[in-house]
Amino acid sequence: MLADVKSNGAVLLGMDVVADSYWPRIIRVVTHAHSDHLMGINRSIKESLFIVATEVTHRFLDVLGYKVPSEKRLSLDYNKSFSVESEVITLVPSRHIAGSAQVLVESREYRVGYTGDFKLPGTPPLEGLDILVIDATYGSPRLQRRWGEWDALAALINIIEDNIASGPVWLYGYNGKLQEIMVELRRRGVSYPFLADESTLKLARIAAEFYGTDIGEVDLYHGQEVDYSAIIFMHTTRRRYKRRLPGVHVVLTGWEMRAPAVRVDDNVYNVSFSDHASFKEVIEYVEEARPKMLIIDSYRGKDAWFTAKYVERILGIPAIPRPRGAPSGGD
To answer: What mean pLDDT value characterizes the chain?
Structure first.
């Protein structure tokens, strides 16, 4: 098959390309710098001929400690192509985090593509494909939120404004999402001091350049006590250790389905902010792209089986979830 998703999350495209996990192929594409798309990257760096990504994603990898040798580092601008053997590889814009990309692989005999993680609007569908591999993190209507991301952002700003006079507000999220929220808060006039650890801050400077927004001065957070009005950005893995600290704690998660913001403890909130397409947006993408065949990435998504059945029955496009029986869930 000219495209597939393997049991370790590797997305195979054409004859020579693998994306977002390790597989013994000469070209490894990194669609974006989230951990579930970086699996096996060090082995790929060792064995592959090139590591292909946007320049922003390569800069993210540098900050995160992945050492791609200069002779293997291939930075592609959006909609610029690179040829290897009989295939042409193109990175197409994707709205997810800074530097995210879709992957198009073409030859004289076939055209296959992979969305990577995405949301709409802002992600142009890959059209005219023989096979499309699509992200469907929210793969059925039961995972459909009834509000938009702007409602979640407004709810977050309200939480900040209602609580920051009493002390700091701690925001927890994944790399990429944290930096996007920094940018969005500044764009909306939130001027309170920002604090972040060194890695989060470096990624934020790169993301701010990508988004064309000045996030202003950001102080380094070294674990010190904060007893004034400030917003502190922390990777989601650190939230279990920090909730005991004074202030209000906000977890940015796409898996909060009850409301744009939910109070889950005296000083803890979930805010339903996701960088993934909703089920409705996934179907909208497929309807416009109209591939000859659809593969739903079930390694990183939920209810991929439902997406496949829906696409076949409603859109008349052959669709299968791959791999079968995979773990699921992303943010």
So the answer is: 94
pLDDT tens-digit readout, 63-93: 999 999 999 999 999 999 999 989 999 999 9
Q: Considering the entire predicted model, what is its pTM? A: 0.93
Domain 3-142+276-322 has CATH 1.20.1420.30: no
Would you state the CATH architecture of domain 149-271?
3-Layer(aba) Sandwich (3.40)
Convert the pLDDT of each residue in 33-57 to its tens digit. Answer: 999 999 999 999 999 999 999 999 9
Domain boundaries, the chain: 3-142+276-322, 149-271
* Burial annotation 122-137 (CB, 10 A radius, 16+ → b, else e): ebbbbeebebbbbbbb
Q: How far apart are CA 6 and CA 26, in angstroms?
A: 17
* Distance in angstroms (rounded) separating the CA atoms of residues 254 and 247: 23
